[in-house]
Specification:
The structure is a single chain. By secondary structure, this protein is of the alpha/beta class. It folds into two domains: about 180 residues, NAD(P)-binding Rossmann-like Domain (Rossmann fold, 3-Layer(aba) Sandwich); about 80 residues, UDP-galactose 4-epimerase, domain 1 (Alpha-Beta Complex), CATH 3.90.25.10. The protein is about 40% helix and about 15% strand. The protein has ten helices and eleven strands. The protein has a seven-stranded parallel beta sheet, with helices on both faces. It has a two-stranded parallel ribbon with strand order 7-9. Helix 5 links the parallel strand 5 and strand 6.
Length: about 290
């Protein structure tokens, strides 16, 4: 099977490519700028801009994949709130470009989405109504609706606060940001009033693999079973390394306002994934040694 991944240089895209680089699948990654040396020689690389309809269509028609995993997105909520036009172009219009290209080659589309399509009152199931509280969530909601109405074979994957090993050339995840600051004895301000189903990237990738292998269609939540606030998560990192926990400073949305509102509780139910995909999760305590050694 041939699988094309948009956002191939992003955190999830890189980990998916690494998972399958030695598998029977043929993998192609697409991004605006690609350093092919960061990928296994079995992984094909195509430079294309998802916001350019002709560019992304040419890339997908050239590759002719069986499955397209659309993980490229503008995903920083504050940036999305302050640059709404760019967010709409990147997250909504570009999704339509990918849909059109998938139709041209008859590919199944797996669309990566977010807990931020919901609001303050989790846990949420796949059938709960949309209720985003920021523009990032709105943009992903609009994109989800385009995918669902596309007529394609599709799966929509909602995930939450993904963490894992930082591969060569990647930016810090939240956990690495915490480690780097505490290691340098720098205080960090972390929210105590946002509850998340934090997700180990290896679990997420295996869940996506199950979607492909089982031919799953529809919406599914692939995230962690454990629930943490960012503050609690930072304390777990501090405890693991023996850093000074007094450097982890608790803040709330009232005391430390941001451009984009965050949901208070966007926890997602994974009962559907457990039952239909055999999805399993790794506890944070077991993941930390795999990430940091």
């Amino acid at each position: 099977m041939k699988i094309l991944i948009t956002g191939g240089t992003g955190f999830i895209g890189r980990h998916l490519a690494a998972l399958w680089q030695d598998a029977v699948h043929e993998i192609v990654v697409v991004a605006r700028n690609i350093d092919a040396s960061l990928f296994h020689t079995n992984v094909g690389c195509i430079e294309a801009d998802i916001t350019d309809a002709n560019d992304i269509q040419a890339a997908i028609i050239f590759a002719r994949p069986d499955v397209v995993i659309h993980s490229a997105a503008m995903s920083k909520p504050n940036d999305c709130e302050l640059q709404r036009e760019l967010c709409y172009t990147t997250n909504v219009q570009a999704t339509q470009h990918v849909i059109d290209a998938c139709k041209a080659v008859g590919a199944k589309l797996i669309f990566m989405s977010t807990d931020f399509v919901f609001g303050h009152y989790g846990p949420y199931t796949e059938t709960d109504a949309y209720c985003p509280v920021n523009y990032y969530g709105e943009s992903k909601m609009m994109a989800e609706k385009l995918v669902a109405a596309s007529g394609l074979q599709y799966a929509i994957v909602r995930t939450v606060m993904v963490y894992g090993e930082k591969l060569q050339g990647q930016n810090n995840t939240f956990l690495h940001w915490v480690k780097d600051n505490l290691e340098q004895q720098k205080p960090i301000r972390v929210f105590t009033d946002q509850y998340r189903s934090v997700t180990y990237v290896n679990d997420l990738c295996r869940g996506i693999e199950s979607i492909i292998d089982k031919g799953f269609q529809g919406i599914v939540h692939l995230c962690g079973k454990e629930i943490y606030t960012p503050f609690e998560l930072a304390l777990q990192v501090a405890n693991y390394f023996g850093f000074d926990k007094n450097l982890v400073l608790p803040v709330t949305k009232e005391s430390f306002p941001e451009a984009a509102m965050r949901p208070e509780n966007s926890v997602l139910s994974i009962d559907k994934a457990n039952g239909e995909l055999g999805y399993a999760t790794t506890p944070l305590a077991a993941a930390l040694p795999q990430i940091f050694g």
